[in-house]
Design goal:
heterodimer; A: alpha+beta; Beta-Lactamase; Helix Hairpins; 3 domains; 5-stranded mixed beta sheet; B: alpha/beta; Rossmann fold; Arc Repressor Mutant, subunit A; 14 strands
């Protein structure tokens, strides 16, 4: 995955680059066009002045001295024009030229560009050369001016793009972002409908339509799957009950050999596990299907005390040491059956997974419940709360106990986490509110 | 003692009958709602085992009918649903107990005994077995008139044995009776040995005969 850009920044980038490119190309074009207009206009102006001068000069008779004086006066009054005897008559053609030389009046400006026109005129039978020069803006100065103006416009353009983009984003894309937010907060396991804002943009409406269809299908599939699990588990209850019942009856028979007795007890263990898995599957499905909605005010410590008492036999059986620090009274607003299940599952887990002569510690403080029990190595926290993640080879485990615990926490918006520290498995439930 | 089993799963119903059919139980069977309704209207039962999901109607309606007719039959709901709502609704409608399937027959038998005893209040709060007598109200046990101090679990075990006389009680049935639903959370039920051993010792010390027999590999039997 490369760098991630916001969708709206993509066109902005492209627009900026394109605008820059066009404006950069436009600079020399402008310069050339301006220069061309400038030069043609000046040439025309020079030519008009020349014609005027020629006509005026030819309409009267001037002596050679007169012409010297005229030239002198011109030189004084209008330096752009001069008349001089031509030594050789090279051509009678008018000739346009361009020259760059220092300006007498503006020394600081350095060199200036001049556009000139020379022509030969016959006066008193002698050829005279008339020269008209006009100062013209140098093309590098034009370039500078055009470039700076272009830059100013470029900046204005980009600022405009950014502002427009932001406005467009706010207005037209707002339904998109609200849709995105709805999708992000959508949870298949707890929501069964998605709210998508009405919009007048065709594509978004089409998107919403498809999304609704997709989500409705997913929700219905999910619901079907959930009720399937519940129904399947439910259907299994009766055959399991029958098997258990038959086993009970076989035990009552008087004449069974020790071999059969052993076989029977070997059947009993997996059957009891099957029964437990099925019971938990049913329970999990029921929790997920929100069968336990009745909320009560619950004193967590009472439930802990009862659970510890109920499990006393199993704790003694494994010679475990159970200590509890109930430093705080936690009052929960939750379903009592679910809280009971949560406590029982966590405690029975701790008892089952603690090696003989191990330690279990229960602690209530800072609005949290901690179960820690001695263990050998850390469990895989990523899959620990998954169904049938099989982190243990335990023959009794249903593989669902922690999944049920997790689901109960999810429904109550409590946070559960697992840690392994100093040889202790630690399960912490953080209660909010 | 007359027992009515309202259960559409015929195999299970037969097993229950088979287990219960001894000297003092007489079982009848109703497989659907109409026949159950008919039977409760015609007869009086000491205890009715009621499955809530039966063809033709809701088991809870049977309870309502019993209440309407002001019948005193004891009722134990046996349900595969194991739903808290059903349990609460059932107990509210006058059921005496609730047992979730699957269950051990021994557990059912003990519960039936207990329901029947409760129904016969004053007349029979005292159980006597040879030199042993149990006062159900005071929850005291005495042998030859000398009281025996039992823990709550030992007392429960004793009643469980007496409710299942001459039947083999598996270790898991005993464990389940002592710790309810949690027994199957654990694979080790050795704690049962400890409690039975203590009970045997205490009864023996008071001079009661050794009626609790160990059945190899299975569990125990209260033999009379």
């Amino acid at each position: 995955m490369g760098t991630v850009t916001k969708l709206l920044h993509k066109p902005l980038k492209a627009f900026t680059i394109y605008a820059l490119l066009i404006l950069v190309i436009s600079i020399p074009v402008y310069v050339l066009v301006v220069d061309y207009i400038w030069v043609t206009e000046l040439d025309e102006n020079n030519w008009l002045t020349l014609q005027h001068t020629k006509v005026k000069l030819q309409s009267k008779v001037f002596t050679e001295e007169d012409i010297e004086i005229i030239n002198h006066i011109w030189g004084e009054l209008q330096p752009g024009i001069s008349i001089q005897r031509a030594d050789t008559v090279s051509s009678f053609q008018d000739h346009f030229y361009e020259i760059i030389r220092p300006n007498e009046f503006d020394k600081e400006d350095g060199e200036d560009r001049f556009r000139g026109l020379t022509s030969i005129i016959q006066l008193n039978g002698h050829p005279y050369q008339i020269t008209i020069e006009t100062n013209v803006e140098e093309s590098d100065e034009t370039l500078l001016a055009v470039a700076s103006i272009t830059l100013v416009f470029f900046v204005l353009l980009i600022l405009g793009f950014i502002v427009l983009n932001r406005n467009i984003a706010k207005k037209s894309w707002s339904p998109f972002y609200s849709t995105l937010q709805s999708l992000q907060s959508f949870d298949l396991s707890s929501d069964n409908k998605i709210h998508l804002e009405q919009t007048n943009i065709e594509e978004f409406e089409a998107l919403h339509h498809s999304l609704r269809q997709l989500i409705n299908r997913s929700v219905s599939t999910y619901q079907k799957q959930k009720s399937f699990i519940e129904n399947a588990a439910h259907e299994l209850q009766t055959p399991i009950a029958l098997l258990k019942s038959k086993l009970d009856l076989i035990h009552q028979e008087n004449e069974i050999s020790p071999k059969v007795t052993e076989l029977l007890s070997n059947i009993e263990a997996p059957l009891s596990r099957l029964s437990r898995i099925n019971k938990n599957l049913l329970l999990l499905a029921k929790v997920e299907n929100k069968h336990f909605q009745k909320l009560e005010t619950i004193d967590l410590n009472t439930y802990l005390g009862t659970a510890i008492m109920l499990f006393e036999d199993f704790i003694l059986d494994k010679n475990l040491t159970l200590t509890s620090d109930l430093l705080q009274t936690i009052t929960l607003h939750a379903n009592s059956f679910l809280v009971e299940t949560l406590v029982h599952n966590l405690l029975s887990n701790a008892i089952r997974h603690t090696p003989n002569d191990g330690f279990i510690h229960v602690q209530v403080k800072n609005n949290s419940l901690l179960f820690s029990n001695s263990g050998i190595q850390a469990l895989n926290g990523n899959v620990l709360f998954e169904r049938f993640s099989m982190v243990t080879k335990d023959k009794v485990s249903s593989g669902l106990g922690l999944a049920i615990v997790k689901e109960i926490c999810n429904q109550n918006k409590w946070k559960i986490c697992y840690r392994f520290e100093n040889g202790f498995h630690q399960f912490t439930i953080q209660f909010y509110s | 003692m007359k027992i009515l089993i309202v259960e559409d799963e015929i195999e299970l119903a037969r097993d229950i009958m088979h287990y219960l059919n001894n000297e003092h139980f007489l079982c009848e069977l109703a497989q659907d709602f109409p026949s159950a309704l008919e039977k409760i209207q015609l007869h009086e039962y000491d205890c009715i085992l009621l499955d809530l999901m039966i063809p033709g109607g809701d088991g809870l309606q049977i309870l309502q009918e019993l209440k309407k007719q002001q019948k005193q039959d004891g009722v134990i709901i046996i349900s595969a649903k194991n739903s808290l709502e059903d349990k609460i609704a059932g107990l509210k409608l006058g059921a005496d107990d609730y047992l979730a399937k699957p269950f051990h027959h021994a557990e059912l038998a003990a519960r039936i005994e207990s329901v029947i005893r409760r129904k016969q209040f004053d007349s029979n709060t005292l159980i006597t077995q040879n030199e042993l007598s149990i006062d159900l109200q005071a929850k005291t046990v005495s042998v030859h008139g000398n009281s025996v101090i039992l823990t709550k679990k030992e007392y429960d075990l004793l009643l469980f044995f007496i409710g299942n006389k001459n039947r083999v009680l598996s270790k898991s049935a005993l464990a389940e009776h002592l710790s309810g639903d949690f027994a199957d959370m654990f694979d080790n039920h050795d704690f049962v040995y400890a409690h039975v051993k203590n009970l045997k010792r205490k009864l023996k010390e008071s001079g009661y005969g050794d009626y609790i027999k160990t059945i190899y590999g299975t569990g125990y039997k209260w033999e009379l």
